[in-house]
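User: Can you write out an input/output pair for a complex, sequences first and structure second?

Assistant: Here is one pair. Inputs:
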Amino acid sequence: MMLQETPVLSVRGLTVRYGDGCPQCASHLEKNRCTSCGAVWAANDVSLDVYPGEVLGIVGESGSGKSTLMQSLYFDLEPTAGTAYLQNYGAGKKSIWEASAAEKRHIKNTIMGMVYQNPIRGLRMDYSAASNIAEKIIAAGSRNAGQMTERAKELLEAVEILTSRMSEAPKNFSGGMQQRVQISKALANNPALLLLDEVTTGLDLSVQAKVLDLIRKIKAKYGISILLVSHDLAVIRMLADRTIVMLDGKIIESGLTDQILEDPQHAYTQQLVHSLL
Amino acid sequence: MMDKYNYAFLDEGSKREIRRSVLKAVAIPGYQVPFGSRELPIGRGWGTGGIQLTLSLIGPEDTLKVIDQGSDESVNAVNIKKFVKMCTGVPCTTRTQEATIIQTRHRIPEVPMTNGQILVLQVPLPEPLRIVEPQEAVTKKMHAESDYAPIWLQLYESLIKYGKVTISAEYPCLVEDRYIMNPSPIPKFDNSKLHDAECLYLFGAGREKKIYAIPPHTKVVSLAFDDVPFEKESFRGKKCRLCGSTDTYLDEIFDSATGERYYQCSDTSYCKEVRSK
Ligand SMILES: Nc1ncnc2c1ncn2[C@@H]1O[C@H](COP(=O)(O)OP(=O)(O)O)[C@@H](O)[C@H]1O
Ligand SMILES: [Mg+2]
Ligand SMILES: [Zn+2]
Ligand SMILES: [Zn+2]
């Protein structure tokens, strides 16, 4: 039934290559690197769909191309090839990688929200938490300061940060709090899709659990679609409805999360699942 | 000794080139036009941008007034007057009504300027986005794309932190609904004089090699949120101790001998004129 819906996001054939490549690349890949010309295929023909309201997990070891995918989607890097369609952009018929600079800003501010592993990438550390949220609202065109403050309060409450701390700068916050501010900022304009790249990696286990729990609540509250990336299958298991396994820039397996956990097909996935037990 | 030099010091080619930049600036109000800033026998940072404009525009029929911090008598103003007079022979005045070209730093005269008059402002920092973005290549792109969210964020941060917008000089304004401009370095008290004016305003930044303009009857709006009106400095309840004016920009003067605080017009020639009536 899920598959009959229109996807929020459809990626087809995303390829990110570092280096020019050569005719031998396809047959000379060692992991993601061509032994003949040295080109790195960070993402190699990646296709996926995210459906409304679902959490799609992407798991894979370090260097498998997860961040490359996320950063391509958020325009932090330019793909070598591929298309990506958003339901809410260009009637789902124009690839976001063909958008103008202004359209890209619009997409980043209102259709997608991104949370990076490193909060320095997603936050203005010296500006107040409220301003971090207001930045998104301003970028979406609002010029009403009172409304921005109201929205900032509402979102900080949703991520369980005391509104009495809204005028403080995130640089004074703990790592877990910084991630929660990043999440609230990403949600500022009610985006249809939230991109979460290793958002709990590096946090203490108890803090990790709290942030994951928060993501679950946010999903329930806002009905937002989430693309959740982690090298840790335990994180994916907790939240993802469906899961994609990446290795060396390629998708090697995908399916319902339960199915993948119960009956992994690829040897690498089997090893991942095994190490979880 | 000045005989060795061309009329108005600069050679005709240089003056023509600067006038071409001025024409471009007038054609695109608020847009910063790069120009090949010339060497002058005056240190950069002492108004060389303004002087080059004045020298390029001045002719035998002109009358010059120069003010610095509102005063015609300051060392800098007197030196500039001496220099221009020496290489052009034009008459100088302290009366705003008599001048055809007024070169200024920090203030726009209290007497309303009329059609046919040019106010040349010496600008130290022309780029309004510099506080949010250090790189020139990036700020150029931001202007091109009207990507002004960061400057609005600056205002919002000030509201959140201090409950009001605390910028007092160099208060940014939007010109003809297109370019955000730094009316550097006038107090925001003078910002309203830029809107729908009779005279031509020219801004010259020598060190930064930029010229920009506000032609007569241009729309100039000081940035403000919809629900937080722009407010200029208020001198309510205060008046000039010399001429009694209550509607001028007042300097606060502290007499350390008596411990007294008093106010007087920053525009000294205006103050004198009121007193002589
Ligand atoms: N600028 C670059 N030049 C060459 N290779 C790169 C560059 N940036 C990333 N890579 C490579 O791309 C691959 C995928 O990286 P990444 O997407 O960050 O992986 P993940 O997020 O899954 O850990 C890695 O092998 C990485 O070394
Ligand atoms: Mg990564
Ligand atoms: Zn190759
Ligand atoms: Zn006075």
